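Attaching the record inline, Q. Sequence:
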Amino acid sequence: MRHYEMLVIINAELEDPKEEAEKVEEVLRGLGGEIVKTDVWGKKRLAYPIQKKAEGFYVLFDFKLDPTQTFELKRVLGLRGNIYRQMIILLDE
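Structure, as predicted:
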């Protein structure tokens, strides 16, 4: 398992964006990942509009996952309508 960091931008117009963040954690656990830390940054203004929205809810996930599961993670999160963007970065050991 490798150590990754993922930044997710969630729809800020949801009643409880933290609930969507918990669903992302469930997806990570379902893929065999181990969540080290979840850092909620909160609502921030976007640099450019995404889906005609000017604000997003930012959440940073620090986790360990098998490298073969990263493509599945991107695919599953891409299917979720309330997640605007996600970026996964491999951290140095």
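Residues 69 and 93 are 19 Å apart (CA to CA). The chain has a mean pLDDT of 93.

More tomorrow.
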